Model the fold of this input.
Amino acid sequence: MRRDWLLAGLMTLSVLFTGCGGPKPLDDSDLDSGSTDPSAAVSDLQGKVSYDGSSTVYPISLQMSEEFNAKYPQVEVSGGLSGTGGGFEKFMAGTTDLSNASRPVKKSEIEKGVEGGIEFVEVPVAYDGLTIVVNPANTWVNQLTVEQLQQIFLADSAAKTWKEIDPTWPDEQIRLFIPGTDSGTFDYFKEVVAGKEGSIRSEGVSTDENDNTLVGNIAGEKNALGFFGAAYYFSNKDKVRAVPIVNPSGDAVTPSPETIENGSYAPFGRPLFIYVNVKSLERTEVRRFVDFYLENAPRVAAEVGYVPLPAAIYEAARRNLDTGRTGTRFLDASGEPRQGTLEEIYGSAETP
Amino acid sequence: MSRETPIETVRLEPIPASRRRAIERSFRILCTTVSLLSVVLLVTLIGAILFQGLPRLSWNFITGMSSRDPSKAGILGALIGSALVCITCAAATLPIGVATAIFLEEYRPQRRWLNVLHRQLELLISNLAGVPSVVYGLLGLSAFVHLFGLFGTIQEPFFEIGVRRYHQYESEADDRMILIPAERDGAATAPVAGMTVYTSDLRSFALRTIDQDAPRVEDPKAARRTIRLGTVGSPTRRTAWYYLRLPFGYTVLAGALTLMLVVLPVVIIASQEAVRAVPGSLRAAALGLGCTRWQVVRSVTLPSATPGIMTGAILAMSRAIGEAAPILLVSGVLYLSSVPKGLMSEYTVMPLQIFQWADDHEREFADLAASGIIVLLVLLTLMNLSAVLVRQRAQRRLH
Done:
């Protein structure tokens, strides 16, 4: 009995070893069959591409990976969604080739990469509108200003009820439902509403990493107020109502692909990025992946529910890649953040 | 011990029979309601999941990979990943867990201070069973993924076996690559006509070269073997099935070892219970016949404790397969081009995939999450069922 097993094991082993025996020479008959084979249309490029980061950008990257793999089936792409901050942590340690981000890279994150000699190219890929939403049964809020949002969300201001913001609104408690503090969405909202120093209040706020849970919570609570990426709003228009936001020029604007792209939905329209490790770009498979990404970004961004960038910005990103221009354009030479919209920052020019 | 405690005498007030019966009845109703409530809750949950998930559950779903298109998306990658991680985890956990349990139960020290230490150890292990799994995830991240940073980095490992380095060049035929083995230090070897080079699937041939400004090679067969001088190659590698690297990186092995930390206390405690349940008389008889400790463990304790140990182990593995939090830290990957092939592959697991689907803004993916939950539930039921079967069979054999 035991001997049988031994024999079976030996046979399996021998099959295994002959299976991975030395390389066989290539002969012309192989090439003949190859040229008639429909799979010959796809590349036999091999290698690995890895990315991680924002869950907001993930759907774009996922679709890119799939389409890329259809063309390059032998390149192993692996993608994760640890959040913008978590993604940069891996990226600056050199673990991933690309990092998805729903906000520009921070100075502190760049510094982490400096030790390991990590240099990167910044590639904006799409716009996302951060949408402030309420329950459809909420009939009183027809627009909100950034100041009013500050009243509601800042840690040191105490607007707990609608009435405290506007005397004509009901005297009922506001229930806040917002994304978790690890997400780029939260970071972006905090930066617009609270600035660098301020902080978003944590009392009486329900956070959830799952944006669908947020949609569900807001749809189920009359006094709810919350925010998340526009893609979630576009696919849940029947459940929640987006609040028009008063932009710097004084108009109340509802988020839509048009208002996000033309910049009138401000200040909550935000660009999405991928960051590419310069060293990884030397590998053919990464280079091809990034080229593929940039080429298809306008179409895929729209398909996935985001807003494509103006062509000029894609061109600027392409130039960055071709010339190997590293670093972020969102910090100036002295490391201070630059103000302005994406178009101003990318369009203006070749500031060093 | 219990025999020495004096029995307390309680004086029962006479209660009218009708009231006693009423109390009895209401207690029974209470118990029934509570248990019915939990059953109803469970049935509702499972019903809702089945209702939402069954329509999308198909063979395509089982054999499909992660996708942006809900009709194409499937769970195969995560399923294989879960299976690989779970099997590796079991292989690592069982020997350590059972050995620890036997040490704790069978080799109780005689000396007093050692005994105190022994008891502290037991206390420690029961405490470890209550540590949230995400903490083990953090530990696993630094211990297994990065090996505490002691052995190089993931990109420049301290130790590697089973890898061949090549440089990948574009041939003159469209989308066909040529591999040239790299130098020992990983540097590129310059392409020279006549040298032995390889296709992507590692078949050898003699290289041809043409000058940088030479016209296109028309013959496809010749083009396939030709590199234009001046083409820059990019490093690539092929790994054998026994490929191993220190540190492990974000691989199946690191994930399995991290899950081992999560379930090890559970396995130890379950095995301890099983070993403790073996009647002392059996051990005494064996020892009386002149058996050594090892012989007692091997031929008396372990065989009769096996059913209990196996049950504990399988239940622990069901826990491991359902863990998402630690894997989020030590893998974090969700899209994979192909299924993980070995211990050194990147991987994803079912709970992560379900979590991501549930989070997607397209609602079809919520249905997919439900389908994924069904697959996970079926797997868990099968595992628990096998725990029951193993126990029954092993028990029958003993009697």
In short: The two ends of chain A are 77 Å apart (CA to CA). The CA atoms of residues 158 and 252 of chain A lie 24 Å apart.
